[in-house]
Amino acid sequence: MKAELFPEDIRPYISPSPKGDLGYDCLACGARFQPDRLYYACPKCGGLLTLKDNQFNRLREKPGSFWRRLFDYRRLCNSQATAGVFAFHEFVAPLIPLEDIVYLGEAHTPVVAAPPALAKEVGAEFYVKLDGLNPSASFKDRGMAAALSYLKYLTRTKGYSQVMAVCASTGDTSAAAALYSAALGGPVKSVVLLPKGRVTPQQLSQPLGSGATVFELPGVFDDCMKVVEYLSDRYQVALLNSKNPWRILGQESYAYEIAQQFDYELGDLALIVPVGNAGNVTAILSGLLKFHAAGLIDRLPKIVAVQSERANPVFLYFSQALANRRYVPVTVQPSVAQAAMIGDPVSFPRLVALVDQYEKTAGWSSFFAVEVTEEAIMEGMIKANRRGLPVCTQGGEGLAGLKAALAKGLITPSDRAIIDSTAHALKFMDFQNAYFEGRLAQEYGVPTRSELTNRPLELEVKGPKPDGQNPLSPSDRQKFVETTALEIAKQLGLKPTAD
Ligand SMILES: *Cc1c(COP(=O)(O)O)cnc(C)c1O
Ligand SMILES: [Zn+2]
């Protein structure tokens, strides 16, 4: 819609300009730093940083109804800069001028109601938000859109000639980082560290295709992360892991979109989130709190964090009694929810602080953590796919988490659950193939149930058949078509048409 067609009270706000007073706040020592540099850890004490807008209260000068109207109208505006995560510019990173925004089609992902047969099987109606429909096929694009827009702004205003953008990854962070770095180009070069054999072939091909420098290291994600932290402490690199607080700001858009997609009425929602490094769940909590503080929503939904029992430090922490919770990193075991296979989540201090704030704001116990088995994760993925809802293994983990939360009474069938389908199913199809072929038992402890498998059928074709190179004669081709069709009709029990 053209600018002049928006209602008069909305028109001046459709295209946002830089505002606010964004700065880095240290969670450990409370120090504050200006956003004119990229920090990932407090320069004073090494603590984890968050980005806070000291002029957030200016957003409260307008009623929630104003912001709801503005954001709904902004959806009709055909501007690239405000089409993605910066549709919520005022809440995401109001510092960044529109000219610096890198938009590759991320965010605005659909929410889909589970097909009835699947809902029946789970015992509750629920929705899935298809965040695998992002440009690099995972939610990580939301964070990279914000982080790389900030990098673009920084390199332009500071005139940097070279920026090494590095990250460790379980596969999707590197795909997103490499893609957005490639699109930004110029001085920004992408470098990714991956645990060898612990990302899927699709995820390995993504950063290679984007032209990133890819290092495969022995070990698991946590080992790669330590190397990247060491590098970023001692060398001039731009860290793109979710320790980078700009990523969290972009990922908050997931919560903003849910609010918009449910007409800002979230009181009976339960958001189910698979958790690895805890960046995503942190961003969702933070986004919901910001919308609540500015009056866009008046009730906060329940949050259910889901982990595999093979990579469960967040679950272990929250399953202890409130008064004496202790955080202990775990050594992960191989998990089919490989993108969340993290034993020492970087965002853990952020998560604890936000959960405390969230429950105080909600006024009741509204954050839960559950753990699920590898078998439940695989069956979640396979059953969802079978009922018309393609999800990845982390989506399967979400479905297993929904079932676990229902079984424990943490949520009830009257809560409207929304599973975060964090990546596209096709990135993780090798796990489904391995299940079908019975190859998951040894490493992941997941036995194959034959009723859930499916394999291609081969036909025994007698007579002439094509060899894929030399064409058959017309009569041989006719024979091949007849004998093959007859065999298929026999196997399917097809009845001939009447005449
Ligand atoms: C990164 C990722 C997760 C875990 O998110 P965190 O922010 O690390 O907790 C879950 N699913 C997929 C597909 C991912 O790529
Ligand atoms: Zn500090």
Task: Give the tags.
Rossmann fold, four-stranded parallel beta sheet, 13 strands, 17 helices, binds pyridoxal-5'-phosphate, 499 residues, six-stranded mixed beta sheet, alpha/beta
CATH C-level of one domain: Alpha Beta
The fraction of residues assigned to DSSP E strands is 5-15%
Using the alpha-carbon principal axes, give the shape: globular
CATH fold-level assignment of one domain: Rossmann fold
Largest sheet: 6 strands, mixed
Roughly how many Å apart are the termini? 56 Å
Q: Which class of secondary structure composition applies to the elements?
A: alpha/beta
Number of helices: 17
Helix content: 25-40%
Mean pLDDT reading: 96
Give me the strand/helix succession: EEEHHEHEHEHEHEHEHHEHEHHEHHEHHH
| Strands side by side in the biggest sheet | 4-5-13-10-11-12
Q: How many distinct beta strands?
A: 13
List segments where confidence is low: pLDDT < 50 over at least 5 consecutive residues.
none
The rounded Rg comes to 25 Å
Specify the CATH architecture of one domain: 3-Layer(aba) Sandwich
